Every structure is written in C-alpha cells, then in structure tokens.
C-alpha cells in the first residue's frame, strides 16, 4: 500500500494492530493546532474482501458490526427533490373546506314547523386518497431490496433502516410512508408504481427513486459509503491519549469552515462511524480547554479508514502549597491565561486538573483574598503537577496582610469561585 504525506510533519512511531502486525498509513493529513501548529494525522484505508479480522468479510466486519442506528446527519439528496409537483400528477391541492348553510324552510300557517337541526359544516367534496398503497384492487408483488457499500461489494448483513414512500404526494404535498423495515433483506409487497426509497446506515444514507413494474424483482442499492475509525496520540513519543479525548466530524461543503455541516459529535476513540464517501474535517478535542487539533480525511466507499491525530498538549494538576511537596490548600480559585493575558480556563478546588495545549501560561491562584501567580510552560506529552507557592504573591497596590501586600481586584481574570472543576 502506497503512502502519501501532506506538508512537513513529525514522524509518528510505528503503530501495530491487535494481531501485532504493523499498520502502514495510506494517507497522512496535515492537522493543525489552534490554526497554526502543524501536527500529523495518519490515515489508513482498510478495504473489503481481504484477510484480517472480521471473518469472510475481512476488515469490513468492523463497519457492519453493531445494531442499527437511527439515521443521523449526512449529505444525501432530499426526498423532496425527487417528488413531483402535486398539481402535475393530478393530486388535488389543499384548499379550505367550503361550508353549506342550512336552507330556511317556509313558515306556513297551520302546518308544523320542522325542528331546528344544527349540522356541522360539510366539505364540498371528499378529496381522493393518493398513493399506490390505497388502491386495494391493484395487483401486488414482491419488491426485494438488498444493500452494498460499493459497486460489487459484499451485501450489508445488518445495521440498515429502510423506508419506502409513495412518489405521488398526498393532497397536502407531503410524502406518504408505504413501508419500513430494519431487516438487512426486506421484501415489500407493493402495487406497481413509483416509489421513493430511503436507506439509512449509521451516519450514511441514500435516497433514490424506484419504478416498480409489478414483476417480482430484487433491487440492489449501492450506498457509496464506508467507515471511519479515529484515535489520537500525545506528544512526540506518541503516548496514547486518555479518556478525555473526543472527536467531531464535519462534512466539507466548501473551503470556508462556516460551510461545514456537523455530521457527528463527541465520538469516542476507536469507534467506527459509518459515513457516506467523501471529504470530512475531523476536530479532535483533548480535554475541554484549548487542546484542539483539526485534520482533513477522505472516506472511500467500501473501505474502513483509520486516522490517528497528534495532540500537542499535556495534563496538569495544580495545587497551592506553602512549601515544595506540601499539602494543597483547599478552597482555591484558579485562573489560567496565556502569556498575552487571554483567558483559557477557570476552576475551583485543591487539586484541579486540566489539559492545556503546549505553550506559555500564567497560573493565578486566589485564596482568602490573597492572589498568587507564577508563569509556567506546558510541553507536549509532559503530564506534571504544578505547584504555586504562597511566596508567589502577586504584586498589587492596595492593603496589607500577614503574607504580604493585599490585592483586592487588581489582577485581571480572577474571580471568587468562577469556573468548573477542571477536566
């Protein structure tokens, strides 16, 4: 398998599969941190019928495994685009109902009058019900449906959701659901006519028109979809990221990030996501602060694509102490800013932990109206404890106290209990 690299990226360590064999990257996407730092994203396509895990399906077993998912966001044709205009096919348009007023009877002397009857308003006509499934006199036959990921690929054994709609809209213009199934091989008994078929396979899906002649046939639907498995490593040594790692997947509709459509969010590592073939932007979050990496990945039909991103960040545990190695002081409020003063994160507690991208920071701790601060540098992959000493008292202009000058509100970005508990 050939390899392609985009940009100049650090060399990742050799990764191995569960069977102990080395994994060769077939594509390396140029990922970047905070829009500036370049970081590697190794992608590997693992296709259909070959060996490996997953039995006779090969590595596609990872895509096919698991129960059916409710259809999510994906880029596919809209069923409305395939429906004809109601007026063009003779389907009556929705109109307000006409009302008939009761006819006044003549009041003839010496004859009994008819009792007054309060009748509800009646429609001028009863609109015909549209849709081939409404005509019980039409002969029905079997429309057998099957699905594959790519042309000539193996049949998808599970995880499918089928919905069959009438191609003739109802009188209000909406499509009519004829039948649905979660079977991998549904057989629909329907009358001859035109239908709109929707097939969902995880985050992949397709909408197509089927013209059924009333003769028993088997229709094979090509989804043009594949699978994507994501992971990340931390630092140059390629340490595995912890459970704080998550991914968002966007469909690329253009070069502008504002045009990207969110397809899936908060995806955990090693989870296979079923997607339509195409280009996607992957956003990797390590923790909930500023450790964010992006990469562009292409999913190919009938293949499982594996991508590994590199996070340039580290996990920090902070504590306020009176001496090195001393006991942490409780009820401390923490504020993390960049060296230029931009707020990154706030937290409260004796041992707050958070993931920060590599770079220079200023750590500010506030306890009992005293503010302490120290500069600190985060190195990628170097998880560490950061001690702020009570001797690191911030220099301010007002007041006095036992540990040094008072502070008040002179230090920007601090607050009495703002923020969460960290990562």
Give a verbal description of the structure.
The chain is mainly β and 423 residues long. Helices cover 2% and strands 41% of the residues. The strands form 6 sheets. Strands 3, 4, 12, 13, 14, 15, 16, 17, 18 and 19 form a 10-stranded mixed β-sheet that branches. A 4-stranded antiparallel β-sheet has the order 7-6-9-10, with no helix packed on it.
Key terms for this structure?
423 residues, mainly beta, elongated, four-stranded antiparallel β-sheet, 2 helices, disordered C terminus
What is the share of helical residues?
Answer: under 10%
Which class best fits the helix and strand makeup? mainly beta
Number of strands: 26
- The residue ranges in which pLDDT falls below 50 over 5 or more consecutive positions are 1-40, 49-56, 130-135, 397-421
How would you spell out the order of helices and strands?
A: EEEEHHEEEEEEEEEEEEEEEEEEEEEE
From the alpha carbons, calculate the radius of gyration and give it in angstroms: 32 Å
Distance between the termini: 39 Å
Shape: elongated
Strand content: 35-45%
Q: Could you describe the largest sheet, including whether it forms a barrel?
A: 10 strands, mixed
Tally of individual helices: 2
